[in-house]
Design brief:
With 75 residues, the protein is mainly α. It is 52% helix and 7% strand. The protein contains 2 helices and 2 strands. The protein has helices spanning 6-35, 40-48, and strands at 57-59, 62-63. A two-stranded antiparallel ribbon has the order 1-2. It is elongated and about 65 Å long. The relative contact order is 0.06.
């Protein structure tokens, strides 16, 4: 017919979908960032709550510092 192997068309289509997904993801990320008028400190407070600076979340709702609720209270 056209002399183009089917596999070439298939690979080109997969590549095009991948590029489209990356472009759409970047557009969504930039749009969310532009519409978010919080400062970096406000974003951190919203994400991590009252965790002390330098600690990080291991699972949702639990900080890296030992102690507090959920430690098992042994003894």
């Amino acid at each position: 017919m056209f002399g183009v192997p089917f596999i070439a068309v298939l690979l080109l289509g997969v590549f095009a979908l991948g590029v489209l997904a990356i472009v759409v993801g970047l557009v969504v990320a930039v749009t969310r960032r532009v519409r978010d008028h919080r400062t970096p400190e406000e974003r951190r407070a919203d994400e991590y709550g009252d965790l002390p600076p330098g600690s990080f979340k291991i699972t949702p709702g639990m900080g890296s510092n030992a102690g507090g609720m959920g430690t098992g209270g042994m003894g």
